[in-house]
Design a protein that fits this description.
6-stranded antiparallel beta sheet, about 0% helix
Length: about 180
């Protein structure tokens, strides 16, 4: 059991049958009131971000999800298949649970699959991935007074803004948390 006052970003806990990860927490204590903990949490099953206010002495079951390194193998239509790097077991994860992650998954990408009591909660992508630019308009010469950007479509279908020197066929490094261009690949 963990008290609300002891929650910190990164902690995972169970509340009303749902599993949550703490993203942010603010403690509020005034002279005549109990401690109030305002938390911003992510539902580990649905990915929804919610805010809760708890009394400082509220208690929760702390959970410890397992993470396993797995490699993306192939697309099954409505789900993706990943293989455990140690046991070679394969698991299918529905695409509806991986809406954001689909923008970055390419052949043989290594990810961490998060489990809790044999239930797959989702995947953790590497911080950056290298993707191929499949469509990009040529840059306009002389349009470089500021850090000019142009749209580009990547091999996964993700559209991002890239510098003018990036062309079709180039590889670019993309941040998986924001989907923003980082550097050439």
């Amino acid at each position: 059991m963990i008290q609300a006052i002891d929650l910190k970003p990164g902690h995972t806990f169970e509340h009303e049958g749902n599993l949550y990860a703490v993203l942010d927490i603010l403690h509020n204590k005034t002279a005549m009131r109990k401690m109030i903990c305002k938390t911003k949490v992510k539902n580990l099953r649905t990915g929804a971000i919610t805010e809760f206010s708890f009394s400082g002495d509220d208690k929760f079951n702390e959970i410890h999800p397992d993470k396993r390194k797995m490699q993306y193998l192939y697309d099954e239509g409505d789900s993706l298949v990943f293989m455990d790097n140690e046991s070679y077991d394969q698991v299918s994860i529905p695409k509806e649970n991986l809406k954001w992650e689909l923008n970055f998954i390419t052949a043989n990408l290594e990810v961490e699959v998060t489990y809790f009591e044999k239930e797959i909660l989702g995947i953790v992508l590497p911080p950056k991935v290298t993707l191929l630019v499949t469509k990009s308009d040529p840059g306009v010469k002389g349009d470089t007074a500021t850090r000019a950007l142009k749209p580009a479509i990547l091999e996964t279908g993700l559209e991002i803004k890239v510098p003018l020197f990036v062309e079709e066929g180039d590889k670019v490094v993309v941040k998986t948390d924001t989907g923003a261009y980082d550097s050439r690949g």
